[in-house]
Amino acid sequence: MAKRIEVSDLDIYYGDFKAVEGVNVAIEPRSITALIGPSGCGKSTFLRSLNRMHEVIPGARVEGKVVMDGQDLYGADVDPVNVRRQIGMVFQRPNPFPTMSIYENVLAGNRLNSKRMKKAEADDVVERSLRGANLWNEVKDRLDRPGSGLSGGQQQRLCIARAIAVEPDVLLMDEPCSALDPISTLAIEDLMTELKDRFTIVIVTHNMQQAARVSESTGFFNLNGVGQPGRLIEFNPTEKIFSNPDEKATEDYISGRFG
Ligand SMILES: Nc1ncnc2c1ncn2[C@@H]1O[C@H](COP(=O)(O)OP(=O)(O)OP(=O)(O)O)[C@@H](O)[C@H]1O
């Protein structure tokens, strides 16, 4: 079930380095939120802080709050593994487990999370997730073949199938199309539009047309200079960001004057 995420006064650190400062934002369920901005402004760092992936880097930490439907994700009693189950992630480069079959790739998250599944139940999860990722028809006759035998776009859809197989509430996507050709990119964009009925989706993208095509809301991150923390400069409906942004820096960025 899609959930709402509220971020308050979030600062994100790598050791002593403050990479992101003072983010306040509400991310709405059943919609796609795009994060744009120049390289190094903290988009990926912010994205990873939403499901506590940030913490896997030694010395990395956050200050402030991330609350999902009333649950403080950084609360003392919260297990980060459980947060990552609720908030799935798809990365820039498709990363299926190369020697694992397509079938087992889809189930990899479920196998980590839970007790044994009956064969019929596992079959059902695999089919449902591959259908959800618009990949079923292309792979249904070769589920026992390695995931690495698929094209880049198919591999990325396999990774999306793996992410949705555990039924998360939120899907984070970090430049999911940057390694893909335009046809595969459109397939993933169509898929995102279908998935937003069931999940809250947050996507980092360098492709402004993509942000404009798929998202309802867009956040523009920027930084004042090297070594300075990134900040969320503007967060608004996507249409407004691309037609009449509140901030001059947003306008300069989207019109290609910098970044
Ligand atoms: N593992 C890390 N350890 C230390 N600093 C890091 C680490 N990852 C990122 N940073 C720093 O944090 C800042 C934000 O990086 P981040 O990757 O979040 O930016 P980004 O906006 O996603 O960039 P890009 O668009 O190039 O992917 C940068 O100064 C970067 O060098």
**Whole-number radius of gyration?**
18 Å
Bound small molecules, by name, code or SMILES, are: adenosine-5'-triphosphate
Tell the overall outline.
globular
Largest sheet: 6 strands, mixed
Portion in beta strands:
25-35%
Q: In which range does the helix fraction lie?
A: 25-40%
Average pLDDT taken over every residue: 94
The CATH architecture assignment turns out to be: 3-Layer(aba) Sandwich
* End-to-end CA span: 36 Å
Stated plainly, the CATH topology is called Rossmann fold
CATH superfamily: P-loop containing nucleotide triphosphate hydrolases
Q: How are the strands of the biggest sheet laid out side by side? A: 6-7-8-3-9-10
Classified by CATH, the class is Alpha Beta
If helices are DSSP runs of H or I spanning 4 or more residues, what is the number of helices? 10
Structural class: alpha/beta
Sequence stretches where pLDDT stays below 50 over 5 or more residues: none
What does this protein look like?
The chain is of the alpha/beta class. The protein has a single domain, classed as 3-Layer(aba) Sandwich (Rossmann fold). 36% of the residues lie in helices and 25% in strands. A six-stranded mixed β-sheet has the order 6-7-8-3-9-10, sandwiched between helices. It has a four-stranded antiparallel β-sheet with strand order 2-1-4-5, covered by helices on one side. It binds adenosine-5'-triphosphate (ATP). Adenosine-5'-triphosphate (ATP) binds at residues 14, 17, 19, 37, 39-45, 57, 230. Residues 5-248 form the ABC transporter domain. InterPro entries: AAA+_ATPase, ABC_transporter-like_ATP-bd, ABC_transporter-like_CS, P-loop_NTPase, PstB-like.
